[in-house]
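Sequence in, structure out.
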Amino acid sequence: ARGQRDAANEVFARLSASKDPDTRAQGRLGQAEAARVGGEREGGRRIFREVASTAEDPSWRGAALEELAEMATEDGRADEVMESWRAILGVVPPGNPAAVSARLALAGALEDAGQINEAERTCASAAAAAVGDDRGAAAVACAELTERHHPPAEARRAWQQLLSRAGADPDAGADAALGVARTSMSLSDPSTAVTATRAGLEVAKRPELRIPLLAAAASARRATGDAGGAAEAESELDRIATSAHEAAARHYGEQSH
């Protein structure tokens, strides 16, 4: 292992000595990561900061700042976490996937720091700037944030809005349907939960999406007195779980926590 580390460090040193700015940045990032893994965290942090401030390409600066944010998270340095994610937003264009990820990560850091209003504004900015698949994922993150910090009725409205906008996006649609079902059950409204799970199942075809929806549907139908509907959902759930072991294990593992 020591020999492999030495060999890697030699490669990184050669890259760092290159006249090409991209190659040089890649080498310095490698040296920083090697220092970090090798227990020289401050040395790694120093090199990451160097790349973040001197690299010509914004993507290398963003990569270094992301590593700094991760290290700060590991070390419990909340202010540095937020500082790093904010710095990334000054480096990459707003619609860039890295910017969306940075905003969501910043929202999480703000939430951890108890700054809920600012976390919600940051999350909303991420969702507004996101495009493609990132848009649905960002919207789900914002609805989850709302559910954690607001009454069930308000959280349900957020999930219902997302469900109405999800369209053919199976991941966002499934998450939104589960959110509506979950908050509806909290509000003693299983009929709305049944309707939501039905909508989610219409677009969710993958086992990992259908399993939690079927479980929620069974509970909601049973709560409405529809024993036959509950049994039907449970029967399909059993069939899928028999063939999709990993998805089933993941779902039941999450339910046990």
